[in-house]
Amino acid sequence: MLLEHLNHKLKAIADQDLTRVLRVAESATAPLQTVRGADGQARQLLMFCSNDYLGLAAHPQVVDAFAEGARLYGAGSGASHLISGHGLAHDTLERALAAWVEPQIPHAQALFFCTGYMANLAVISALGDEKAEIFSDELNHASLIDGCRLARAPVQRYAHKDMAALQTLLAASQAKVKLIVTDAVFSMDGDLAPLDELLALAEAHDAWLIVDDAHGLGVLGAQGRGTLSHFGLRSERLILMGTLGKAAGVAGAFVAAHPTITQYLLQAARSYIFTTAAPPAVAHALLKSLEIIASDEGDQRRANLVRLQAQLRAGIERLLAAYPQLGWQRVPSDTPVQPLIIGENGATMHLAARLDAAGLRVPGIRPPTVPKGTARLRITLCATHTEADIQRLLQALNEAAAELASESP
Fold it and tell me: DSSP letters along 169-221, please?
């Protein structure tokens, strides 16, 4: 009965052009990567889907630091943080991360998590108790949404970046503890949350602001310190989650906040307490990543990203002007996430398949990840891309658009 039930659900997914397909990367993350598809064939593709925004995942110094960490501390941690798994590398990294965010969060402490998903589950479910009320942007990441689902607090969703709606909700709340939850950079649109306005509302209504900076850390702000730095914010009301498997190029995440908050998470955050600590080598490698991000080399990589983003935006604007009948739309974004909305699921996946046949991997993103009718190509750029890579993508998009326009009535 179970298999019949699941096969029925799988067919319903396929009928809506929503089937996900697993591919196997056979080489290191890079703009040119060898990938084995569902047909079992391995090909070298030009990748526009990685979150390795600064190109640090295969950086020789980061790789060497990872290997050094394994030699120093072994392959695994052996236990959860609170048993015996919290090693010197973890402690050193947490201290470095706290110093990293101190310009934005006075007296911050940091806790290192295995993943950003686990970090978000931890902070929201632990702080969102029966005395709290949560206010969540409707386009927040799935991990934030799931954290809200696990919390005991009621959740109020407000329309994307609608500060007037949020203010109304906050003013009406009688909760003892108010938690505003938002992505800093929204992962499917690439746009920024108005963090300055959100913090002002938090201060006016005695609320706390939980910020997921998965896609801003390393990319935005002075020395790549993230979206809080980009907005020039500083407040003890800020609770920051930062992902370390994207621009930092390795794995894991952290929560940084006032010491009372992090100490409470140490006692109450189930996804921190009841899981084996990440391998110490991961933390050791991340220390090198942070060093590179804050260096002149990091500045140069961010500057190259900005140039590539401008080149891609200009090319897509020309494409949209040339083929308005297709109804494609560019989502305005000043980050490495550069979405191109196609609309329907089938059309989106058909375009992604055309690009794949041309040797480019640009994933189609469909509901429920994005709202119905806004299926899109989620183009992501890395500092290790070249101008020639961007031009190749634009040429492939133009060729596909020309063919589709000629086929349309």
Answer: HHHH---SEEEEEEESB-TTT-PBP-HHHHHHHHHHTTEEEEEE-TTTTTTSS
Check whether 238 has a pLDDT greater than 70: yes
Please tell me the predicted confidence (pLDDT) of residue 407.
81
User: CA nearest 374: which of 401, 404, 350, 344?
Assistant: 344
Burial 353-390 (b: 16+ CB within 10 A, else e): ebbbebebbbbbbbeebbeeebbbbbbbbbbbbeeebb
d(C-alpha 162, C-alpha 296), whole Å: 37
Q: Are 233 and 203 in contact (CB under 8 A)?
A: no
pLDDT of residue 364: 93
What was the pLDDT predicted at 408? Answer: 67
Who's near 82: CB < 8 A, 6+ residues apart?
266, 273
Domain ranges of the chain: 18-47+296-407, 60-293
127-142 burial string, b = 16+ CB within 10 Å, else e? bbeeebbbbbbebbbe
Q: Say if residue 17's pLDDT is above 90.
A: no
Domain 60-293 architecture? 3-Layer(aba) Sandwich (3.40)
Digit-coded pLDDT (tens) for 165-195: 999 999 999 999 999 999 999 999 999 999 9
- Indicate the average pLDDT of the chain: 96
- pTM equals 0.94
CATH T-level topology, domain 18-47+296-407: Aspartate Aminotransferase, domain 1 (3.90.1150)
Start-to-end CA distance of the chain, whole Å, equals 46
C-alpha 158/C-alpha 312 separation (Å) is 32
Give 3-state DSSP helix, strand, coil % of the chain, rounded to 5: 45, 20, 35
